[in-house]
Structures are given as C-alpha cells and as structure tokens.
C-alpha cells in the first residue's frame, strides 16, 4: 500500500527527529543547566494524593516502557519457538491493559491535584501541566488499542508495528509502507509516544536519566571522610591514664588531634 505524506513524515522522518532531540537535548541540558535537572516534586505542598498518584503512575509506565521496548524490538524469530505471535499479543493485551489502567489512574490523580490545588497550580510550570495532559492522552490511546487488537488475535498488526520499530532502529527502509494500513488509533498512539521523546529534554522527565544512573552507585569506590569528632582509640586513652599527670604550669600545649579517617560510600542522589 502506498504511504501518504502524513505516514511518510510521522513514521519515516519524525522518529529520527524525536530521537535526535531526545539524546542531544538531554546531553546539552545536563552540560549547560544542571541546576534544573530535577523532578521538581510538589510533595511539600500536598503529600497524600501524590503518594498514590506517583506510585500508580510509575508502576504502570515503567512496566509499559519495558514491555514496549522488549516486545517491539525483539525479532519474531527469537520468541517464536516459545510462544506464537497470537499468544504474545494476548499476553500483551492482558498485561498492558492491567498496567495501563494503573498508570492511567495514577496520571489522572497527578493531573487532578495539579489543576485543582491552588498552591500547586501557582507553583506549576506550563510544561508540567502540558506533560501530564500528553501522558494522560497517551495512556488513554494505549487503552483504546486493546479492543481493536481483539479483532486480529493472530498478531498480524503487532508484527507490523514491531517490524516498523526494528527497521527504524536499524536504519532500514520500507517501514512506512508496512504500517500504512494500520488503524488510526495505533498511529496516534505511536505519534504521541514519539512526541514524549521529543519534549523529554525540556521537561522534568530528564530526572529519569538519574534514575538509571543510580545503578552505577553500587560500583562506586569508597570516599574517605574525616570525622569532626575526636574519637581516639580506646587503647590510646588507657595508656594515657597510666601516665603521671604533669603540673598545669608545666603542661605543654596539646598537639591538635587528627580526626580519624572513615571510609564510607557516598549517598545516592535522589531525583525528588
């Protein structure tokens, strides 16, 4: 099927535009504006609903991000001996629907508290609200694809979408024509997903990089930290007690004690 200009731009050029801005923009922001590299948590203003919303949102989106990455970038020949394409689609529909509902509920709570709480609304940036709206729509579109997927349980559409993604990352042509006849809901879901990568460096989402970077903490070398307290070894104090105490007038000036050196692991940075 011949691709339209819409398909050619959004599924032929737009993926590379979004990924380029994603990587280059994140690097430039880290290099030039590290003080803004944070999650800008509003927990101090209102903690109760944030706990529920944030936990549900992160649980849903982290599972879906990992599932989409593995599911779409894994070649069919790798998992074919273990599960059919139709079986894989059913698993994706069930697990994606469950975690999609959790993420949708979480982002709905976060968006509601940011729009209705006066203090949080005044301290919010326009990008904060826009990001939550985009994520809310993305979850809604993702859930809307599940009923459509039920009409082709053979996994044919899923295989087309996966082949398109694999051709994008391997710089192969032909992906646009492959998904030209896919339902519009799938296309909108994919376009909005690429848009999230496009705006990533300009929002609070950059703190996701710090979350992945905390893995390096386990392999950090120990830092040497000098204690402010004068903690001398017990044996040294005992030997001092056994010596005669000189007169106050003849007592020499005490040499400044060197605080002991302690090896501790540096604390991991937190995004919020």
Characteristics of this structure?
272 residues, mainly alpha, two-stranded antiparallel sheet, 11 helices, 2 strands, globular
Task: Walk me through the topology.
Layout: H1 5-32, H2 48-73, H3 76-79, H4 85-116, H5 118-123, H6 126-149, H7 156-169, H8 175-178, H9 184-199, H10 207-213, E1 223-226, H11 234-241, E2 261-264
Antiparallel strand pairs: 1-2
Helix pairs in contact: 1-9, 2-4, 4-6, 6-9
Characterise the protein shown here.
This protein is an all-alpha fold and about 270 residues long. It is about 60% helix and about 5% strand. It is built from eleven helices and two strands. The protein has helices at about 5-30, 50-75, 75-80, 85-115, 120-125, 125-150, 155-170, 175-180, 185-200, 205-215, 235-240, and strands at about 225, 260-265. Strands 1-2 form a two-stranded antiparallel sheet. The chain is globular, with a radius of gyration of 28 Å. The two termini are about 50 Å apart.
Estimated structural class: mainly alpha
Average predicted local confidence, pLDDT: 83
Q: Kindly report how far apart the N and C termini lie.
A: 48 Å
Q: What are the segments in which pLDDT stays under 50 over at least 5 consecutive residues?
A: none
Beta fraction of the residues?
Answer: under 5%
Order of helices and strands: HHHHHHHHHHEHE
**Sheet with the most strands?**
2 strands, antiparallel
Strand order of the largest sheet: 1-2
User: If helices are DSSP runs of H or I spanning 4 or more residues, what is the number of helices?
Assistant: 11
Computed over alpha carbons, the radius of gyration is: 28 Å
Q: How many E strands?
A: 2
Measured as a percent range, the helix fraction is 55-70%
Shape summary: globular
